[in-house]
Amino acid sequence: MHFEVGKEYSRKTDIHGRFGGQAQGGISTPKNYPAIFLFTSETGAQHGYRDEYREDGVFWYTGEGQTGDMKMASGNKAIMEHSRTQKTLHLFEYVRKAVVRYIGSAECLGYHEEIRPDREGSDRIVFVFHLDVDSVPDPVGHDLTTSDPPQIGSLKTLKLKSLDELRNAALAKKPNTQSTIERRYAAFFRSQAIKLYALARAKGVCEGCKEPAPFQSKMGPYLECHHLYRVADGGPDHPENVVAICPNCHRRAHYAQDAISFNKELMNIAVQKEASFQSGLK
């Protein structure tokens, strides 16, 4: 089973038509494949489903159940037990009706409970799963990963690293451990590394409009990191999927009438910069 990060798929044809599983709802558990499909959408917020990346690099994903307290059964139980049952979590986001974009594979680090309204407006207990999402794309045309990925390092030294060291840190190898604390730290480390890398790569110039940063902050030229796939905005990602842009371009990427085409332009810019990086043309 293979999905390409960033690629769009027809949920009905490309996913359930090939692998089975429930064609409705946010969690789908095909019987004959070691996979669990998770779907997220902005419209879910209307029913208390608020999915988002957090500052620590972990993605919060709301469990299933539209009314009453959620139960640790069916899809919710499948997420919690995916490591034991050796099933891979695959996260998709809706981009339009019936079409989803693949965000990456994920690992559940745990969950917590919250009080949120159900679809009828009544307060109930919901499960919020903590996912460590791997959004590193497959190699396309040039090497996207280091031949020997470095290990997770110290947050204190990140700001002192060179451009290539920051890139390596963003691609750091996940720890081979069952320790939830270490896995959470790894997610946070990579999310911080990718932000610092994007800012260092831009060298104080917006990667969108090519204008100098609008002002100087205490940390240097002020630019904002923009992940090129909406749900990943603010979360761990790959250097090819992130740009450092001015606040105006950032708002344009999210809200302008030409947001889709502008994001495609930004994607091309990031790909070209990464290709140049790999060729030693920094």
Mean of all residue-level pLDDT scores: 84
Question: What would you give as the CATH superfamily of the largest domain?
Answer: SRA-YDG
Q: Which CATH class of the largest domain applies here?
A: Mainly Beta
Low-confidence stretches: 139-149
Strand content: 15-25%
3D shape: globular
CATH architecture of the largest domain: Roll
Notes on the structure:
There is one protein chain. The protein is α+β, with helices and mostly antiparallel strands and 282 residues long. The protein has two domains: 8-134, SRA-YDG (PUA domain-like); 155-278, no CATH class. The chain is built from six helices and twelve strands. It has helices spanning 11-19, 74-80, 163-170, 180-202, 247-255, 259-278; strands spanning 8-10, 27-28, 35-40, 52-53, 59-62, 88-96, 99-117, 123-134, 216-217, 220-221, 224-227, 242-245. The strands form three sheets. Strands 1, 2, 3, 4, 5, 6, 7 and 8 form an eight-stranded mixed beta sheet that branches. A two-stranded antiparallel sheet has the order 9-10. Strand 6 and strand 7 form a beta hairpin. Helix 3 runs antiparallel to helix 4 (180-202) and helix 5 crosses helix 6. The longest helix is centred in the last third of the chain and has 23 residues, at 180-202. It is globular. Residues 193-251 form the HNH nuclease domain. GO terms for molecular function: endonuclease activity; nucleic acid binding; zinc ion binding. InterPro entries: HNH (IPR002711), HNH_nuc (IPR003615), SRA_ScoMcrA (IPR058712).
